[in-house]
Write a structure and sequence with these properties.
Layout (H helix, E strand, L loop, with lengths): L36 E7 L9 E6 L5 E6 L2 E6 L6 E4 L10 E8 L18 E6 L3 E14 L3 E11 L8 E8 L5 E8 L8 E5 L3 E4 L12 E9 L2 E10 L4 E4 L3 E4 L2 E2 L2 E5 L13 H13 L4 E3 L7 H10 L2 E5 L17 H16 L5 E8 L17 H14 L4 E6 L28 E5 L5 H7 L5 E6 L6 H4 L8 E5 L4 E2 L9 E2 L12 H10 L5 E6 L4 E5 L2 E5 L2 E2 L9 E8 L3 E6 L2 E7 L9 E8 L5 E8 L2 E9 L6 E6 L12 E9 L12 E8 L1 E7 L14 E2 L4 E8 L4 E9 L2 E10 L1
Helix pairs in contact: 1-2, 3-4
Length: 752
C-alpha cells in the first residue's frame, strides 16, 4: 500500500485512545469508535541473515490481526491478548525494500464488554536463528525440590528443526545468582531420531546451594542460560529469569509461599493504563505496581485476559503475586468473547501459547481459565451439559501437560448450583456452583457472606474472592476467614476505561484510585487494614455518591475528597479513616469530639462526623490515638487564591533515550503560600522541548470529553498530569507550564 502520506507512530500504540469520545457509542467500550487500522514498516534485510531463520514476533495486536510481508500473507493473530511468531525467511528481499503490513481489526461494540484498545499495543521483534533452534518460549524452568541448604533446578528445552536427526547435539545449562555470579552448570546430549516436530529435552538436575528465595518482600531472581550445540558448534542460546520458591494451597491455611501463610491483598482490573490506554509501557506498568505496594497490596488478578510479558517481568521484580487469567466467558460472539474464532477452535491453541509464555514467572501462582461463565449454558464452553465441568477438566489436562507445578481455577459468577441467581430460590440457598466444586481453587466473585454456607455444603473448598466490591470497603476483608482462605481482589480498584454506566462517564470509577493513580481517601482506609503503619486520613463527602446493581450485587461509591475549600457556611459529613483506637476531629482548634474505632466489620477503621460546619474555612485536623498516645494526624487547610503553577516530577529512575521511557510530571496551581489549590480550573499550556515528546496530558477527570492529546487543557481539581516519552537521542528536556492568570513554571532534566 502507498503509505507516503501516512502518519508515523512509535510502538506500542493504542489508536483507539486517539478516537473521539462519542455519546452515541457503546458505554461498555468507553464511547469509542471501532475503526480498523493498517500499519506498515519498511526495513532492509541484513546480508548476514541469509541461510538463517528470520522470525517476526508480535507480543499482541488488538483485537485481532492479519500480517503480510511484501504482499505475502504470513498469517493471522486471532486472540489479540497473546501474540504469534511468523517465519519470514522465504519472503525477504535482500536487494530491495521490505514492507511488513499489519491490518489491526478492532472488534465492534458487541465483541467486548470493556475497553480493549486497538492496534499494535505491545512489542514487536525480529529474531534470526539457526534452522535448528530452541522454540518460542521453549525454555521451561522448575524447582522440584527446595530446602534451606539447596535447591534442585530442572531445565527443559524444546528444540525444533531437527526431526529424526542423526547428528550429535548437546545442551549446556548455567544458573546465575541474583548478583550475577555463576552458581550451577551442567550439560547433556540431545536424544537422536525423535520423530516429533519438537524434541523436548529434560536436562539433568542442577543444584543451587543456599538458595535465596523469591518472595513478596525479597523478590530474588536467578537467570538460567542454555546453549544448544550441533557437533560442537553453538547454534542457539536462550535465557530467562526465574525464582526459587514454593507455593501451596490448602483448605486449612489458604495460600502459603515458601511455607508461610500469605493472604492475597489484591485488585482485579482491566488492562488499560489510564491516559496511555492499552499500550503496554513498562514504566506505566511499574508505576502501577509501586503505587499498589505503597498501599499494602501484594496481588493482581489479570482479569479477564493475559497481560503483557513486561507486566509479568515487573511483577517478578517487585514481588507481586499474579493470578493469571486467560478468558472471560467460553463462548463465541457476543460481548464476552474478544476473538475472531469460536471457543472450540481456539482454546487449546491460545492456552498452549499462554502457559508456555508465562510459566517461568515466579509471580504467577495460579492459572485462571475463565470468568463468570456458569450461569448460562451457552457461556460454558463445549456443549456437555454440565455447566462447564468437562470443558474445565480438558483445559486442566492441557495446563498440566505444559506446567504441572500450578493449580487451576475459574472465577465464579455470584450464583448458586443449577445457575440459580438472585431469585426466590436464592435466599438461604448456599449450594455452591457445580464448577467451583471441581476446580482446584474455588474462586468466587463477591458474595463473601455466602462462603460459610458454601463450606457447610462442601468443606473441602479452598476459597479465593476473585472480585470484591469497593463500596463494601472493608466488608469483604473482614468477611473472610483470613487464616483459612486464599485472599481477595477488589474489582476496579483503579478507574479504567469502558464499562460505563452512562454518558458522560467514560468508564468504571467505583474505585480507590483514579485513572492517574491518585488515591481517593478510601484508599487510605484499605491501607489502614492491609498494613501495620499508623494511618489517619480525612475525607469530606461530596454529594450523595452512586449505587447500582451489577452482577446481582450492589456496587457504587461515596464521592469523598481530601480538601477544605468549601462553600461558605456549608455543612458536611466528614470521615476519618484510621487503624488507631480512636480519633478526635478539630475545626480551627475546637474539638468536635472523640470517636472510638469499632475494630470490626464494614465499619472498621471508619469514623463519621455528620453536619460539620465549614464556616469561612480555616483548618480541619484529625488526631489518631492508640492507648491514649498520638500515632498519626492529618490536617487540611483552606487555601488562598491560585497565583502560580508548580511542576513536580515523579522519580521513576533514569529517563532512557530508547523511545520507550516515560516520565510522569504533575502540574499544580498553588496559592501565595505554596499550598495546592484543589478548586483551580485555569487553562494551562504545556510546552516541551528537547529529547522528549508528549505522550499524553490528563486531567484525571473520568467524565472528560477531551482527548489525551489536547493542549492547552484546563486544570481539574487543581492539577494536570503530563506524561513524557523519551526520544531515541540523549539530551536535555525542558518543560514550561503557563496560564494567562498564573505565574508560569519551568522544569528541566536530562535523558541519558
Amino acid at each position: 500500500m502507498d503509505d507516503t502520506d501516512w502518519r508515523t507512530v512509535n510502538l506500542p500504540h493504542d489508536y483507539q485512545m486517539e478516537l473521539p469520545w462519542d455519546p452515541r457509542g457503546v458505554p461498555a467500550r468507553g464511547f469509542k469508535g471501532f475503526n480498523d487500522a493498517v500499519y506498515q514498516k519498511h526495513f532492509c534485510a541484513d546480508e548476514a541473515w541469509k541461510g538463517r531463520k528470520v522470525l517476526l514476533d508480535f507480543e499482541g495486536i488488538m483485537t485481532s490481526a492479519v500480517v503480510w510481508l511484501n504482499g505475502h500473507k504470513l498469517g493471522e493473530i486471532n486472540y489479540g491478548y497473546l501474540g504469534a511468531e511468523f517465519d519470514i525467511s522465504q519472503h525477504l528481499k535482500y536487494d530491495a525494500d521490505n514492507v511488513i503490513t499489519v491490518l489491526s481489526i478492532l472488534a465492534d461494540g458487541g465483541n467486548s464488554r470493556w475497553y480493549t484498545g486497538g492496534g499494535i499495543f505491545r512489542n514487536v521483534h525480529i529474531y534470526t536463528k539457526n534452522p535448528i533452534s530452541v522454540t518460542r518460549h521453549g525454555l521451561y524452568i522448575t524447582t522440584p525440590t527446595i530446602t534451606e541448604r539447596e535447591a534442585a533446578v530442572q531445565l527443559q528445552v524444546e528444540i525444533e528443526g531437527a526431526r529424526a536427526q542423526r547428528f550429535d547435539m548437546t545442551l549446556e545449562g548455567k544458573i546465575y545468582g541474583p548478583d550475577g555470579t555463576l552458581v550451577a552448570q551442567g550439560s547433556c546430549d540431545v536424544p537422536k531420531y525423535i520423530k516429533l516436530a519438537i524434541n523436548e529435552v529434560k536436562m539433568p538436575l542442577l543444584t543451587v546451594a543456599h538458595p535465596q528465595l523469591w518472595s513478596c518482600e525479597t523478590p530474588n531472581l536467578y537467570r538460567a542460560e542454555v546453549v544448544l550445540k550441533k557437533e560442537g558448534e553453538i547454534i542457539d542460546r536462550v535465557d530467562d529469569l526465574f525464582g526459587i520458591r514454593t507455593i501451596e494451597f490448602t483448605k486449612e491455611e489458604g495460600f502459603k509461599l515458601n511455607g508461610k501463610k500469605v493472604f492475597l491483598r489484591g485488585i482485579a482490573n482491566h488492562h488499560d493504563l489510564g491516559a496511555v490506554g492499552a499500550a503496554s509501557f513498562p514504566d506505566a506498568e511499574e508505576r502501577l505496581m509501586l503505587r499498589l505496594k505503597e498501599f499494602g497490596y501484594n496481588h493482581i488478578r489479570t482479569s479477564h485476559n493475559p497481560y503483557s510479558e513486561s507486566f509479568l517481568r515487573l511483577a517478578d521484580k517487585h514481588g507481586i503475586l499474579i493470578v493469571d487469567e486467560l478468558f472471560d466467558k467460553w463462548q463465541y460472539g457476543g460481548p464476552n468473547w474478544v476473538a475472531n474464532l469460536p471457543f472450540d477452535q481456539l482454546w487449546y491453541q491460545v492456552e498452549t501459547e499462554w502457559i508456555h509464555r508465562d510459566r517461568n514467572h515466579p509471580s504467577v501462582i495460579l492459572w485462571s481459565f475463565g470468568n463468570e461463565l456458569q450461569v448460562n449454558e451457552g457461556w460454558a464452553g463445549l456443549p456437555t451439559g454440565d455447566w462447564g465441568v468437562t470443558t474445565y477438566r480438558l483445559m486442566k489436562v492441557l495446563a498440566e501437560r505444559y506446567d504441572p507445578t500450578r493449580l487451576t481455577t475459574v472465577a465464579m459468577f455470584p450464583a448458586r448450583a443449577n445457575a440459580i441467581r438472585n431469585d426466590p430460590e436464592w435466599e438461604g440457598n448456599f449450594t455452591p456452583p457445580e464448577l467451583s466444586c471441581v476446580t482446584d481453587i474455588a474462586a468466587y466473585n463477591y458474595q463473601y457472606p455466602a462462603y460459610k454456607g458454601y463450606l457447610e455444603h462442601n468443606p473441602d473448598l479452598i476459597i479465593y474472592q476473585s472480585e470484591a466490591t469497593v463500596n463494601d470497603l472493608l466488608g469483604p476483608w473482614e468477611g473472610m476467614d483470613r487464616e483459612k482462605m486464599v485472599g481477595l481482589a477488589y474489582w476496579g480498584a483503579i478507574e479504567y476505561w469502558g464499562e460505563s454506566n452512562g454518558w458522560p462517564k467514560k468508564g468504571w470509577n467505583y474505585s480507590f484510585f483514579n485513572h492517574n493513580l491518585d488515591p481517593y481517601p478510601q484508599a487510605w482506609l484499605i491501607r489502614s487494614a492491609m498494613t501495620q503503619e499508623p494511618i489517619c486520613c480525612i475525607g469530606v463527602q461530596d454529594g450523595q455518591g452512586e449505587e447500582m446493581m451489577w452482577n446481582d450485587n450492589l456496587v457504587g461509591t461515596t464521592f469523598i475528597s481530601s480538601h477544605w475549600n468549601r462553600k461558605a457556611d456549608s455543612r458536611h459529613n466528614v470521615y476519618v479513616f484510621t487503624n488507631a483506637d480512636e480519633a478526635e476531629l478539630l475545626i480551627n482548634g475546637r474539638s468536635l469530639g472523640v470517636k472510638q474505632n469499632d475494630g470490626q466489620g464494614k465499619g472498621k477503621n471508619r469514623m463519621l462526623w455528620t453536619d460539620v460546619p465549614y464556616g469561612t474555612g480555616g483548618t480541619i485536623l484529625a488526631i489518631a490515638r492508640t492507648g491514649g498516645k498520638e500515632v498519626a494526624r492529618h490536617e487540611l487547610k483552606t487555601t488562598g487564591k491560585a497565583v502560580r503553577l508548580v511542576i513536580e516530577a515523579e522519580d521513576n529512575g533514569i529517563f532512557t533515550p530508547d523511545g520507550m521511557s516515560l516520565r510522569y510530571v504533575h502540574v499544580y496551581a498553588v496559592d501565595a503560600k505554596g499550598n495546592r489549590v484543589p478548586t483551580a480550573a485555569d487553562e494551562v499550556t504545556l510546552d516541551v522541548q528537547g529529547a522528549a515528546t508528549i505522550q499524553a496530558i490528563d486531567d484525571g477527570n473520568h467524565y472528560t470529553d477531551e482527548l489525551m492529546n489536547v493542549n492547552p487543557k484546563h486544570l481539574y481539581k487543581g492539577q494536570l498530569l503530563l506524561i513524557l516519552r523519551s526520544t531515541q537521542q540523549p539530551g536535555t528536556v525542558t518543560v514550561k507550564a503557563s496560564s494567562p492568570a498564573l505565574k508560569a513554571a519551568n522544569y528541566k532534566f536530562s535523558s541519558q
